[in-house]
Amino acid sequence: xxxxxxxxxxxxxxxxxxxxxxxxxxxxxxxxxxxxxxxxxxxxxxxxxxxxxxxxxxxxxxxxxxxxxxxxxxxxxxxxxxxxxxxxxxxxxxxxxxxxxxxxxxxxxxxxxxxxxxxxxxxxxxxxxxxxxxxxxxxxxxxxxxxxxxxxxxxxxxxxxxxxxxxxxxxxxxxxxxxxxxxxxxxxxxxxxxxxxxxxxxxxxxxxxxxxxxxxxxxxxxxxxxxxxxxxxxxxxx
Length: 238
Prior knowledge:
The chain is mainly α. Helix content is about 70%, strand content about 0%.
């Protein structure tokens, strides 16, 4: 009976980590594709230019692949070192996620202030050489969210040193429409628009977070159960 349960647990662990590994491969593939085809796509921060969508996806995909591989091989071979390494890495990531969420809520006002200041600084790099990713990101954000600037469309006046905004701020896009009358521009702040969008989708974000946490907890339980069983078997036959 115990052996049958252990076998089921092993297969469950292998299946779980195989899906985990395949998911990591998919995320890594998307990150590499974005990096090759779009450059530093979605880089909005001037102080953290490496913090792009492509780089984040590559990093996350690689971490998931490594952890999934450790768990899968550890389950197949019933290797105590690999199962313990898998458990420790997953537990560390779980605690870091909880810590990050706690720090975000504690320092939310400070994070808001820093993010707005950093984004405004990034506007100065818009359209400059070597900053295609930042330029494309701002064009997409302003077009999709129907907004202009970080806190106001006047943020762009300091960039151009004149009453002008990028063409992506226009109600109806056309070449050099950013030089037209301000009445033809979006005036809503992009920072607040994005925050409103996140608040509107808060339920979906929390469901995703809970599903992620549940998956990690199951991985922790499976790996530690297998590890303890492997210790018992080794002790029994010692």
